[in-house]
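hiii so um. not sure if this is the right channel but i have a protein structure encoded as tokens and i wanna go backwards to a sequence. like what aa goes where. can anyone help
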């Protein structure tokens, strides 16, 4: 237990997609966390685990260190402020307003283009608020029930906080087709944004770097002689794929 309950800054993503984007008001709504399921960290967050943080640093608190709305968990990249943070039966619901800064404008375009799809939280486990629950019905034989965390920020992340499953693991799995499709869909989304060409150099550069990462994943998979070569063929009508790739090399 001591290895889990410490003063470390932790990041958690639960794959929850954006609920709504209003480009006129610059407001976005989404869930930052989900209650009642055992996640990839073997944690089960219970309703009420954010209560103290919301009271002390939430939207309506008097604190000058409110829960921050960031990009990539980077405290040098605030993209707006939270207008609403509240727990409901599903999880931690948030409404954020994007700022008029360069980073806020870039984030708004990324929401519009579907580049930002998920969010995650930056937090700390609290001593005596994490309890091991034995459950022989699951593979891990139990889970950590988390009744309180110190929530510091919620972040917009590009295609989820976690990196893709390692290529070698995918090569051995039964989910190769889904993996290929996910990469292809992400590449096509990024290509449309690059062809559109809107945003700062920093935004376009980050998209180019993401493109390079995704195409490298496809290259590695192709070299493993996976038995579904057709899956790595990327087709998209409406723009010149070769021209895009040439421009970002």
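sure thing!! here u go:
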């Amino acid at each position: 237990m001591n290895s889990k309950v410490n003063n470390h800054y932790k990041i958690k993503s639960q794959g929850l997609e954006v609920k709504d984007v209003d480009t006129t008001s610059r407001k976005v709504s989404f869930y930052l966390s989900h209650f009642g399921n055992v996640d990839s960290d073997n944690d089960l967050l219970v309703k009420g685990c954010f209560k103290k943080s919301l009271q002390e640093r939430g939207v309506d608190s008097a604190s000058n260190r409110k829960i921050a709305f960031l990009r990539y968990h980077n405290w040098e990249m605030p993209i707006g402020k939270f207008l609403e943070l509240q727990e409901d039966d599903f999880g931690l619901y948030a409404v954020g307003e994007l700022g008029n800064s360069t980073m806020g404008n870039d984030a708004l375009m990324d929401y519009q283009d579907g580049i930002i799809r998920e969010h995650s939280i930056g937090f700390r486990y609290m001593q005596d608020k994490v309890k091991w629950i034995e459950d022989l019905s699951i593979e891990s034989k139990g889970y950590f029930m988390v009744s309180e965390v110190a929530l510091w920020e919620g972040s917009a992340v590009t295609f989820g906080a976690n990196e893709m499953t390692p290529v070698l693991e995918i090569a051995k799995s039964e989910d190769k087709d889904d993996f290929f499709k996910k990469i292809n869909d992400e590449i096509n989304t990024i290509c449309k944004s690059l062809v559109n060409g809107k945003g700062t150099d920093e935004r376009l550069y980050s998209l180019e770097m993401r493109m390079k990462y995704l195409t490298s994943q496809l290259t590695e998979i192709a070299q493993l002689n996976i038995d579904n070569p057709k899956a790595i063929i990327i087709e998209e009508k409406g723009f010149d794929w070769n021209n895009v790739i040439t421009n970002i090399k």
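oh and The chain has two domains: 10-158, 167-248.
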